[in-house]
Structures are given as structure tokens and as C-alpha cells.
Amino acid sequence: MPIRLVLNKGKVPVKIYTDAVDSQALDQLANISKLPFIHNHIAAMPDVHMGIGATIGSVIPTKGAIIPAAVGVDIGCFVGTTEIPLFDGTQATLKELTAQGGEHRVYCIDKKQKIVAAIATAKLTRKNAALLKVVLDNDAEILCTPDHQFMLRDGQWCEAKDLQILTSLMPFYPHVEKNSAVKLPVQPRPPDTSLISGELAYGYNHKVKSVEFIDQKEDVYCLTVPEYGNFALAAGVFVHNCGMNATRLSIKAKDLPDNLKQVRLAIEEAVPVGFNMHKSIKAKNSTIIALNKVLEENILPKHPAIIKMMRNIYRTWTQQLGSLGGGNHFIEICLDENQDVWVMLHSGSRGIGNVMGRYFISLAKKDMEKHLIQLPHKDLAYFNEGAKYFDDYVEAVHWAQEYALFNRKEMMILIIESLRKVLKPFKITEETINCHHNYVAVEEHFGEQVFLTRKGAIRAGAGELGIIPGSMGAKSFIVRGKGNPDSFCSCSHGAGRQMSRTAAKKKFNHRDMEIQTQGVECRKDKGVVDEIPGAYKSIDEVMQNQSDLVEAVHTLKQVVCVKG
């Protein structure tokens, strides 16, 4: 449905995709619209409701400033000089493709490991990012962020920081018929002569020569390839494109046990929930090294007060990796319309992210007081680009968002391992869909490059997949974005609360919980009553209100839910 309500009480309008908005959320949106650096307008998604500082479900474009109370930071990819082979036989750098804008035809690889052409868009994903250098056996050097994924020779994915010397990578060598008008891009090494149309030469691959962290930071870019989720580099390998977590398994509903309690208990045994953490470090050593390098060398030396805000900071953040947390965080086993089984989870940056957020929000407030800046609300304190703490804030909050991404990945590994103990043998048949929903990205909208903050919203660019979960007794959706410009290519990140946690605890009890979660194996005690379905908006109504923003690809019904 189109925009339902327009609020004109500030310097820019607020375009709202629902008419069911509480007065407190409207006041917050009006306050944000009064800030001097908002670009064009603010968009509010159909799950919009009051939040701390900024309204949850809001999308805020800013020029030259960032509001810490509304932010996390997106994950980056490759330096701007990275060469991309195009299907017309030419090559261009990621920075050039981003500057050109529009769509580009690039090389990808499909599930049958055949090379195909696909439409891609390029974007700047992060400024001043820490880098890692991967050198291939053809002496091609690739500079990327440590978390970026490379395709291995067997079709699996591996993050750059986890690549080992002599690891075989999927080679990129397209074959074009002799009478084709399409030219081949320049290759770093000639293709195998056994190559046939569209297929890979199985007698050839690239191997990793070395992997090392480097003392260098640059702006990083990436391609989004909605149809295939990967693209080729001129260096001769395939890498993942940019992307809550959702993974489809090869088993059906009929393969699940009649009593699902053992499934829930297996997950709860593997993944700590609430304030709990692992008794020892469970994450990969390479993950710990990558995170600790930036934290210990760049962030904590400049801001030692963060250390005092968390007891046993190193032990806590390392042992919380792979844990769920509380509140609206969840792990779910779901069934789609074809009775396929999915694993879905929602979690964040745990205690360390919370501490960093509170620390920099406090710094921003002090900065406002120092410069005698009058704000519509104290929680809307901001850092101007170029200000003393701006770059430090962006680096710290990116670290927290990267931590959240690694946390979800480690959890998914633990969940899959726990399910293998209680379910029949299965494979992962649908690649993981990973969404960020509290972050800022550098994007272009309405003719200007802006910092775009999605506070409780996800990106919904044309063709991009996303996840929109409902409450624990309802249903969830895998969606495909429509790239709606008025929403800044965004959509809701869930159903959205219609009452506070305190109000939910007063209105409902454990008996109500049992009734509203019938058919779902989950905790039904008073400790989770604040997450009762009745505390949330109707997910069907939310989806109807954003029909102009996304289309549903899969409808998922929860059968197991783990809450903190």
C-alpha cells in the first residue's frame, strides 16, 4: 500500500506507511524532522513504534552528521580499486561502478557451478575499514575486509580471515562462443582448454598463496547481485555479495519428531540465552583475532573508559560470541508453504555493543552541551562529520555490528550441530540470508550521497532478499525488495510492538501465553510474557501496509521458538 500518513511539523516531512502510530512515536518522528541535517524526508515503516532516542521503524537520511542513538554500521567488502570483469568484455573498479550508478552486467556462478551473467548494483559500504590481503597463486592481490566470503572449489564459502595457504578457490574463466559479439575480459592466467560453454574447467583452480592483516585502512565497496548472491573478481575468483539469519534445511515437516521439546532443549543446551554466556570461548580463533586486533589496537587505547563499563571485558565479549541474549532475540524452527524446514535467528552485539552504544551516546550529549547546541530532545545528540569523535564512533560502532554478524554466524553453527544430534541427516539447501536492522550505510538517495540510518528497518533494494519476523505465535516472511525510493529502499524489520513490556506483563499472564502460542514448542512461563504475541502488531497488517516495498517469497510458520 502507498504512504498512509505525512507528518509536517519540522524542516522535512515524515512519510509513514501506516496510520496506526502511537502519539509518542509521532512526537519522536516530529523531533527528528526538526534537525538541521536531515535530507529530503524521513520514512517510517509500518511496524513503527516508540524507541529510545530515535523511533523504531524509522529510516533517517542525514548529511554530514550521525545520531548515535539511532545507529549501528553496515559491513564492508573490497577496496575501491578492486577490478570487476563486466559482461561486455571491459573491466571497471568498484569505485567507478559506484560513481556511474545504475545497473551493471557482471559474471556470477549458479548452483550448478555454471558461469552466467547477472544484473548488479555497486555501493560504498563503509569508510576507513580495516583490511586484510589475500594473495593468489597467480600473484593477484585482493584487499578486503576480514569477514568477506570467498567461494571454495567445492562450492562452499569461507571468510577471508579463515582462508588457509593452498586452499583451492573456485576459478573464474568464462567461455564465449566464437561467433559471440561479447569480448572476454583480460584474465590473469589463460583458461583450461577443456572449458566448454558456460561450464568450469575441473582440472584447474586458484590456490591461496598467503593471507595477512595489513596496517592499512580504506573506504570499501561491494556489489549486490540479487539473483545469484555472488560475483567474479578480475583476479579470477568468485566472492559473496553483501547481504537476522535464515537458513533452509533439506528435511520436511514430516521428518520432525512428534514431540519437539527435545529439539528446543538441544538448542538451549548449545546456545546460552539471556544474560548467560559460554563457559569457555566457542568462536573460531581467527574470529577472536580479527575482532581483538581492532578493539585492542584502535578503540580501547583511545577510549579506556569503555573497559571500566564492563567487568572482565575480554572474557565477557569472547565468551558471549555465539549466545542469544534476551528481549526480542530468538531462535526459531519454521515451516514454509512447501513444508520445508528453516532455521531463523535474531540477535545482536550482546553486552559489548550495548556498552559502546551508551558510551558514545554520552559523549555526543557532552559535545552538544560544550557547543551550546539546542536539541528537540537530548537523545538526538549527534556527531558532525569531522568532529573530534566522529571517526572513533564510526569505527567502534562498526566493530559492534561486525561482532553481531560473527555472533549470528557462530550461533548458526552451534544450532545446526545441535539439530544434527536430534534430527535425521540433513543438508543446508538455501544459503543463509543475513539482515542488519540497526545500522548506518553510505547510500545515494534523491540525488545526494547521505548517511542512511535504518533504526529497526532493513534494506529492501530491488531484488534483494530480506527477513521480516512476526511474533512467536504468528508467522514470518522471506521477502524480496522492490527498491521503493520513498522508503529509501527499506522495509520493516518485524511486526513491531503495540504495547510496552511493562504493559504486556500487567495485561497478560502465563495462561494467556499458553493460549496464544498453541502449536509452538517454546517457554510459556511468566519470564517471557512480555514477548507474548498480543504485545505485537498483526504481521499480516504490517505486510499489507508495505506491499509497495516488498513481495513475499516464503511464508514461515514457527514450530519451535527459543527465547532469552
Task: Please give the structural blueprint.
Blueprint (H helix, E strand, L loop, with lengths): L4 E3 L6 E3 L6 H11 L8 E8 L6 E7 L2 E2 L11 E2 L3 E3 L5 E3 H7 L3 E6 L5 E22 L4 E4 L4 E3 L5 E3 L8 E2 L36 E19 L5 E3 L5 E3 L4 E8 L8 H10 L14 H15 L5 H4 L4 H8 L9 E6 L4 E7 L3 H21 L12 E2 L5 H33 L5 E7 L3 E8 L2 E8 L1 E3 L5 E4 L6 E7 L8 E3 L8 H7 L2 H7 L22 H7 L4 E14 L1
Parallel strand pairs: 2-3
Antiparallel strand pairs: 1-2, 3-4, 4-24, 5-21, 6-15, 7-8, 9-10, 10-11, 10-15, 12-13, 14-15, 16-17, 18-20, 18-22, 19-20, 19-29, 23-24, 25-28, 26-27, 27-29
Helix pairs in contact: 3-8, 4-8, 7-8
CATH superfamily of the largest domain: tRNA-splicing ligase RtcB
Give the spatial strand order of the biggest sheet: 22-18-20-19-29-27-26
Number of strands: 29
Q: What is the arithmetic mean of pLDDT?
A: 87
What is the radius of gyration computed over CA atoms, rounded to a whole number of angstroms? 23 Å
Q: Distance N terminus to C terminus?
A: 35 Å
Q: Would you identify the regions where 5 or more consecutive residues have pLDDT less than 50?
A: 72-76, 175-203
User: Which range best describes the helical content: under 10%, 10-25%, 25-40%, 40-55%, 55-70% or over 70%?
Assistant: 10-25%
- Overall geometric form: globular
What CATH architecture label of the largest domain applies? Answer: Alpha-Beta Complex
Number of helices: 11
Structural class of the secondary structure composition? Answer: alpha+beta
Q: What percentage of the residues does DSSP assign to strands (E)?
A: 25-35%
CATH uppermost class of the largest domain: Alpha Beta
Number of domain units: 2
Q: In the CATH scheme, what's the topology name of the largest domain?
A: tRNA-splicing ligase RtcB
What can be said about the biggest beta sheet? 7 strands, antiparallel
